[in-house]
Amino acid sequence: MSSRESCTIESAGGVNLDARVYRAVAGDSNSEHRNDELVAVLVHPYSVLGGFQGLMKGIASGLADSGVTAVTFNMRGVGKSTGRASLTGFSEVDDVVSVCKWASQNLSARRILLVGSSAGAPIAGSAVDKIEEVIGYVSLGYPFGLTASILFGRHHKNVLQSPKPKLFVMGTRDGFTSVKQLENKLKNAAGRNQTHLIEGVSHFQMEGPAYDEQMVNLILEFISSL
């Protein structure tokens, strides 16, 4: 069984972030996925549309139950986190970097996996190469489509040019990105890029709790490949 604890993490500009640590405890020592040096940092969907760390709770607890400590947090301006949310998510990149550095210092995380959901994916993607301990990146429904690119387009090159291993998970009926758009974006991407398509599933369906277990299994498989 995993345990959950609350903490406050300081980010850039004196912003304080409300966070949760889902810790894999000693009883999980026989887990095939257990790795005391690896921590998964989960980045929630778009703050402006009501995204918050609770949406990542199912995945975080599933990872912890499988032996991987996970951290969720409310980005600036969400819930008890101070500061103000930004439209394009660039201020929030500082939040991701701060949480990763905190995990490195306070959870002895020598390796960090960044996982971003929906608009959290471009934000996390922009942080990948800013943190040495990050060894891989998982995107759950990256909004690569034309409309979403008005807000998040300037994040794209940051993750696509990263040499670190990446996994892009998407439903084939995602309303923000078509399968063809995803394939085109990854065509010239640096490093190792894997995709996993979930047949007939929409963007917000995949974000729902019904798919948490599947997301956990995909993330664990990816960790095993690193």
Give a written overview of the molecule:
- The chain has 226 residues and is α/β, with parallel strands linked by helices.
- 32% of the residues lie in helices and 27% in strands.
- The chain is built from eight helices and eight strands, in the order βββαβαβαβααβαβαα.
- It has helices spanning 57-65, 90-106, 120-127, 146-152, 156-160, 179-186, 203-207, 212-225; strands spanning 2-10, 16-24, 38-43, 69-73, 111-117, 134-140, 166-173, 193-202.
- An eight-stranded mixed sheet has the order 1-2-4-3-5-6-7-8.
- A hairpin with a 5-residue loop joins strand 1 and strand 2 (16-24).
- The mean pLDDT is 94.
- Residues 55-203 form the KANL3/Tex30 alpha/beta hydrolase-like domain.
- It comes from Perilla frutescens var. hirtella.
- This is Alpha/beta-Hydrolases superfamily protein.
Protein topology:
Layout: E1 2-10, E2 16-24, E3 38-43, H1 57-65, E4 69-73, H2 90-106, E5 111-117, H3 120-127, E6 134-140, H4 146-152, H5 156-160, E7 166-173, H6 179-186, E8 193-202, H7 203-207, H8 212-225
Parallel strand pairs: 3-4, 3-5, 5-6, 6-7, 7-8
Antiparallel strand pairs: 1-2, 2-4
Helix pairs in contact: 1-8, 2-3
Notable features of this structure?
226 residues; 8-stranded mixed sheet; 8 helices; 32% helix; 27% strand; globular; AB_hydrolase_fold; Alpha/beta-Hydrolases superfamily protein; KANL3/Tex30_Abhydrolase
